[in-house]
Amino acid sequence: MATKAFKDLREYLDEVMSWGDYKIIEGADWNLEIGALTELQGWTPNAPMLIFDKIKDYGPGYRIVSNMLNNYKRVALALGLPLEAKGTELVRAIRDKLKEEFKPVPPVEVSTGPVKENILTGKDIDLFKFPIPKWHEHDGGRFMCPGGTAVFKDPDEGWVNLGHYRIQVHDKDVATIHSVPRRQGTLIRNKYWAKGQNAPAAVIYGEDPALWHAGVAQASWGVSEYDYAGWLRGKPIEIVKGEVTGLPVPAGAEIVLEGEIVAPPGETRTEGPMAEWAGYYATYPEAEQVFKIKAILHRNNPIMTGYPVNIGQYDLYHGTRMVLAATLWNNLDRLVPGIKGVWIANESPGGAMLIIVSVKQMFPGHAKRAGILASEAHDRVPRFVIVVDEDIEPSNISDVLWAMGSRCNPATAIDIIDGCYSQSSDPLVSPEMRKRGEYYSSKAIIYACKPYTWINQFPRSIKGDPELLERVRKKFLS
Predict the structure, then answer these.
(1) Where are the beta strands (DSSP E) in 197-267?
(2) Rounded to two decimals, what is the model's pTM?
């Protein structure tokens, strides 16, 4: 299982730039303009990667890259997959890759690396040295990424965990790392707090995209994302020890923050709100234990990466939804036969609110089994699962809506399940429920399939044979 093993982010960017698939923007304001330009790309088909330089209030060389993984070709490059794969075809390629047996490839420690070209400690620490954006108008402040990769080491078991969290900058040496209770990093952090200790942490910006996707994958407890990324790449990640925490950080990272998350009842700052995965400001500002920065490591002319949540017809959420769909597909394959495709719609901004599953029906209740299992296959709070026949392309929303309008009888083909798991950032959790700490919601499973009991008598579709359509297209239109 080997991707193209880029040594660092810059090698990946060089490859994309060699295609001409980028746009340099100079003079944009870190306050909202960078965020707005990034948001606009979600409404532009096959939008280029954006590289911001000479950002307002900052000199040249302190750059931000956004829209980096927001088209199929760039996602495929990051994961070492065929560059022509799109839609469900790309999800299938990811699924096949993830089906291979996981064999950990541990990182290799080196004595130094580009990330240590600049080491800031003491009075030299200044987070505002970097052009940290305010991405959305109603964000509670400036957020690094959001989606910084935080590094924690379990104090009892000794393994290293990496995960994506939102990091808000409050002062020159003060930030907050927001995490929800079930996350592995939260559980590790809490182990330190239970001992009355601050939790050592490092935050990475600008890493090899395979390592970034390893943080998305949420490896099993006790499995380090460094080992997982090494497996994805077919080559170990090179790491160096942090200057003050000793935590392993990528030698080729662009920026690393090192410090401690202060244990309660120590200093707190008001965190948030921030544009959430569902496309709303669903959580309220609240007190968060501070992340006290003890050192900043960075390369010369550092490149920050931006992965904000946006709503857009062509926003792929950096390929995350395709990795989630591929994981879901693999889970379903183990439980039910005949799954022909899985897609998480772009209309699910940063989560999985709308899942589409294509199935070749083989027995009565087959579609229902697939839908119920899909609704429970992961923890990303799905709101709707739509099950379609194998002749429907799940990533083609027009196809899916046609199937819903013509094959779903609302009186008999919709299941509603109440009392399902949710979380505080769910916009449908009412204020009264929040006060009581009751985070649950409901799901609907829509069976937009031909009724199995008379599937062979269902009216024939007027769609042309795909082979005929492709032959005619090549003959007359290409």
Answers:
(1) 199-205, 238-241, 248-250, 255-261
(2) 0.91
